Amino acid sequence: MFATLPLTALRAFESASRLLSFKAAAEELSVTPTAVSHQIRTLETWLGVPLFERLPRQVRLTECGERLFRSLHGALLDVAQSIDTLRPQRSGSSLTISTTAAFAALWLVPRLGRFYARHPNISLRLDTHCEVIDLHQDASVDLVLRYSLADYPNLYGVCLFDESFGVYGSPEQVALAAHRTPTLISVRWHNSRLYAHGWEAWCAQSGETWLAGQPTMREYDEEHYALQAAIAGQGLVLASNILVSESVASGLLVAYRGEVLVDGAGYSALCVPGRERHPPVRAFFAWLEEEARISGHALR
Q1: Is residue 238 part of a domain?
Q2: If exposure means fewest CB atoms within 10 Å of the residue's CB, which of 76, 102, 194, 227 is most exposed?
Q3: Quick one: 71 and 124 in the same domain?
């Protein structure tokens, strides 16, 4: 059934497609760039369609190349994961998760103790760089946790929860805000589409006239800095009900007019199709969904 498949050429194609470089693929496969180029030419001749556009100093997949890469990468990944499950696991399994620093610090890490208690043999590594990772190109990351308005039709995903924004502060600051205009704390978003003009939207919905009097504003690059400023009593923060949940539960922050909430986006857990069957990934997905349900009930 598979006797006529050019497996060596397919392996070269997968590597070159994922890395978008014949040279990098050659290094990964321990062959020469000429050998990789020859294998891909052979595959293109065998298929009768071009798989790459050869551009100056780079290559780009054609539509046919994209289709072949998606199916081939998923199939090879499935085989590799099946092989891993057959090998003796002396030191347990590893799992690499990519997410934002704020989500890791404010929601994920405080809960990870429960995951480790349930799965002591899984070694988890967090990648909190800001760059958005292309999971089809970077096989080093097993799963990403993303905050976005977008859909991801080419990935396997689970929607964890939708987010809303409210105003929070220390108990003292919330009490004072009933009598005077507070200092307003916000976050400078890396992607302004996700949440633009946040304070304006909240004030319009609440009827507060704080912005009319040119209040003192404090702006931070990251959500956890803004929350720490609010906990320290420096003002009221416009914050995600998800990311603020631990601080509210511990009494460090309380909601100001908690009935007024502005819609945000949603958090999803995503991986390359097929990878969700890998035991550590499957375990993490199941744990995440359980924690998301607990968080959802606590926020109601």
Answers
A1: yes
A2: 194
A3: no
